[in-house]
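Pasting as-is:
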Amino acid sequence: MVRAMSEEYANDLQNLVNLFGVDVEVEHRQEDDGFGVSDEFSIKADNFEETFSQSYNLDEKDPLKRKSVKKHRAKRALYDKLSKRFGITLPWGCLTGVRPTKLARELVENGQVKEFLVPEVLEKDYCVSRDKAKLVSMILKNQKCIIRNDKLVDLYINIPVCPTRCLYCSFISSEIGAVKGQIDNYLECLVRELEAVKQVIKDKTYMVRTIYIGGGTPSVLSADQLDFLLSALNFPVDEFTVECGRPDTITEDKLAVLKKHRVTRISVNPQTFCEATLKRIGRPHKNAQVLKAYQMALEKGFVVNMDIIAGLPGEKFGIFKRTIATLLDLYPENITVHTLSVKNGALLKNSGTVLSEKDIAKMVDYAEKTLIERGYKPYYLYRQKNQLGGLENVGYFRDDHVCIFNIDSMEETASVIACGAGAMSKRVFNMENRIEREANPKFLADYIARIDEIIAKKKDFFA
């Protein structure tokens, strides 16, 4: 439990304590007289109690930058103390945020660090491991598609429905059997929101850079439903992604509809090629369905992403190696390697399943080394709370097939106009270095009931 004068500090410090996996109580107080800053900490556990403080001069006058530096210094001080006390080092050091690469890029763009010195600074100032610091540096080099122009936007559409709920999933996503009667009404409301968005785009002279339909599992919709939705989209983009993550939802007629509407990229997500694990985590598809869906996607000419997860219940390193080997035999354009996150909203959290973290780092390191050796390059990275081993998710590409939407959204360099239940719009003001967010209601019924209000708020948000 962390108690601090600032709630924001308390949250960040609590997240850091959680990464250590230790049971401690922390109290934090910070004083700033405009010239210098002092931090005071009190740490209590079953077998010890310790109080310490640190003081430092701070020349930075900009309030936002000053606040950022103060928070970083407090986290670093607590990290150093906990690391020394418990003999634990974390792969990402005192970093607790979702986007380590965004931090590194800002250091470079603000002139604080030369790009080639990023690994050294992450190691020295943030206690990031050498391997993770080098990974960040590689990713920065592979994100050459970033364009900072407030007139460029990405369009995101959310379909928060799945065939079944996976054991590890914490998304606000409904099982199709429970909401089947609402789907047509939902799509009609979604198209209404899209029509309003088209007017916003015209009025603001925005240019849509990419379209991404996610979820959930958008391919749970029927071919006719997909056709109805996609008919509302007429933006001439070069990158148009539709998540088809569950192979058992992918059919020839659905892929034909996607191709008809100029979709360029889909996902076919095995998560693992061990069928015993698939059954354990609530994904009833078979490997044969993955291979069939992938073959159909190749025949239609789609760029394909495949997701896998390191740390699934019951999986050992040898099983994970076989999954990597199968992926490399298939050789999709994109591969995303996730580290399992045990979230509060997931069935896994209370399932009684015993998870071992022993092989997790080994799995993630093996995936990175092996994929890079086979010509893949890492191009985006993000972290989530409660990921095993405090690790990360990394997207890889080959042959210049980066997903621009993934980079834009993770690095927060472009605005996202997001439609549908649970969708989060982001307005990025690059010149002012700030971001505003606007969330749609999370559940289908609320979204349908409040569609007029949602449209009005969307127009105001982008006005």
